[in-house]
Amino acid sequence: MTEAILLVGGKGTRLRPLTVHTPKPMVPAAGVPFLTHQLARARAAGIEHIVLATSYLAEVFEPYFGDGSALGLHLEYVTEEEPLGTGGAIRNVASKLHSAPDDPVLIFNGDILTGLDIEALVDTHRTTGADVSLHLTRVADPRAFGLVPTDADGRVTAFLEKPQTPEEIVTDQINAGAYVFNRSVIDSIPAGRPVSVERETFPGLLASGAHLQGMVDSTYWLDLGTPQAFVRGSADLVLGRAPSPAVPGRCGDRLVLDSADVAPDAKITGGSVIGAGARVEPGARVDGSTVLDGAVIETGADVRDSLIGARAHVGARTVLTGAVIGDGARIGADNELRDGVRVWCGAVLPDGAVRFSSDQ
After folding, report:
1. What is the rounded (10 degree) CA torsion for 303, 308, 312, 313?
2. Of 64, 119, 259, 296, whose CB count within 10 A is highest?
């Protein structure tokens, strides 16, 4: 049985303030910590043993997931004391693996929402005899990504950093952040120092003649690194566009957790999530947004494409579009926050204090 390493050590800087008190993989998406969706999909693919490579706020993971038995998994945890990069983090957990040298080990990042066929990636690895296999996906504009060209048989021929000119865009295939390594390759990564798989391990293996195989799977794929992407990913899970067996309810236009209080005339649409103990008052509208546990959306407020932190308070008639409101923040009545505005945890904005839009 294939085992897996899940990389969950990042600080989630681009998601602040939501990651001030919560590591990015534990921020709720579609009603449960995002990590739950990844673990559930791995289990559905037949994986039973997963080692979590933790770092930032590492103490949060084990109290929530324990030994993994509730998910039908055996979970173990390894914390890096100093940042080791992707390759260093993989090497740091090697002692917890049970695989033999030639056995495949699945590795995936804790901030990617994907419909990847995990079993197909493992099968591709086995049938091609690869040392490392990579999930590749195609994107319309690859300039923000590392390119991974392959030959006619899918064998990786190069790793190209973010292209700057049209001539450098030789493929639309990018590294999608999920891999299968032979256990022996993991053991060959230098221990005790930072290592990047993208910049050091993969190019080094290629230069040494190792077989790196690419498998293109262009089903759903989204990097949840920004608030806008995280909101979209959560909504897509609720709407059923992104697959997960862990969504706590039927897919549809909204997900309202059992202990939430939503007024009968409040409009909850676009894959919005209303968390446990949250309250949405009469006449309020929440569209394509995530409202975390214990938050309050007052009468007539209009919340669109926004993330509302736990126990935050959005005042009456306030308009939020593409905003991020930190845990415990209080936004007074008759405010207007747009276009990526972020309000820090615990901050207080008085009534009518802020009017912001891109055309002002």
Report:
1. 0
2. 296
Q: Look up residue 174 and give its two tokens.
A: 């990018």
Token pair of 295 as six digits? 């938050």
Give the C-alpha separation, 200 to 226, whole Å: 26
Tokens 């306030």 sit on residue: 318
Cβ–Cβ < 8 Å for 274, 254:
yes
User: Which residues are known to be catalytic?
Assistant: 162
CA dist., res. 265 & res. 123, Å (int): 51
- CA separation for the pair 323, 340 (Å, rounded): 5
What 3-state class would DSSP assign to 16? coil
pTM for this entry = 0.88
Q: Which two tokens stand for residue 266?
A: 């409040």
Helix axis angle for 227-239 and 34-44, nearest 10°, is: 50
SS3 content of the chain, % helix, strand, coil (to 5): 25, 30, 50
Q: Which helix (H) or strand (E) holds 235?
A: helix 227-239
Cβ-proximal residues to 105 (8 Å cutoff; 6+ apart), any chain: 2, 3, 4, 5, 97, 99, 180, 181, 182, 183, 186
At 83-138, the pLDDT tens digits run: 889 899 999 999 999 998 999 999 998 888 999 999 999 999 999 999 999 999 99
Which SS3 state, helix, strand or coil, does residue 355 take? strand
Find residue 122's DSSP bridge partners.
none
- Cα–Cα nearest to 327, from 1, 4, 39, 26: 26
